[in-house]
Amino acid sequence: MNWRVQLGLALNLIVFATVLNSVGIVVERSISEWHIAKTVGGTLEGCKDLTIAFTSLLLASQVPKMGYRRVMMGGVAAVCAVCALLATVQQFWTVPILFIACGASFALVKVSVYATVGLFAKDSAQHASMMNRIEGIYQVGALVAPVVFAQMIARGNWINTYWFVAGLALLAFLTWVVTPLKPPDPEEAHPGTSPDKPKGAGGLQDVKLLLQRPLVLVFLLCAAVYVMIEQSIGTWLPSFNKDVLSLEPERAALMLSVYFGSLALSRFVFGYLVKRIPAFTLQLIYLACAFALLGAVLMTTAQNPWQGAAYLLVLVGFFIGPIYPTLNSMMLSQLDKSLHSSMTGLIIVASALGGTIGSQILGTISQHYTTHTAFHFPLLPIGTLAVLLILFHRLEKQ
Prior knowledge:
mainly alpha; Growth Hormone, Chain: A
């Protein structure tokens, strides 16, 4: 994979990570400045994730026909347009439009990115390495947004951050204009089949074929539950820091950057540790640490709004971060590359549904009780994911 392709993929991920992971900040700012209800704020995650789910379900299998490069160019162009719209109009009605448009674009671009990795990866080990690097870059992009938002909030106009995102999207578009997408060997895009890697038939038939496999069903549950944890915490973290820990809005936004940074760092660290410790064992250890850490933060802040707990809470991201890309790589490596687009579409659907449900549950609990009470909810999916990982591991060995 040449440097221009790598740059193009990295810019794609940074653009979408920046805008899609700004939901938590936008929710907090919308509640504070436009006085929307918390339940309405919770729907913004749905605007993004449900659009991602429906677009993936309907169009993911068609991405190879559209062309990976054309899809990525169209996706970042759409992001540039809607970010400029929000930054210009600066009214709440443009926010759902932003997340709907970016959600639809992301669904197709992510399929293209994952499929491109499949085109260039030579074996399962390289595939796993590239997937962790890809997801690590995505999280690096996610931590950029809160830093910029924090600076803009301090200056009194947080919406101007979207001019920055529009500029990144334009840069990504221009990169793909001058970057052809050519795998090392055209045959690698559709290699021969093997007994354990059935080749896709195309379209919705591939989806049906995948959904008939118990391993795929358990994997999709794992993906949905994981994203339920990650996004529910990420979406409501600024609100928790402000409502429970009494942090200033700009500092609350900055802590979201640290949360995404911990996700990114953990994925690079995991790549080192997994060479010495089995991935399954590491995943269970990480989940146990995440459960214990979140529980400790909630107990510590039950009566005393200790601001130092904000630093402990973001570390939950470190212990959940590597699970998602590692599971994705394990699943995709077992499939023929002709099935990668359809499988990626299913991954995106499951992830989107998990993120929407988790954020909506936290928003509803926050509305009727307190934000502190709502943050007890992620403990349930963390425990559930540990059980699902055990089941996935057993099915994978069969």
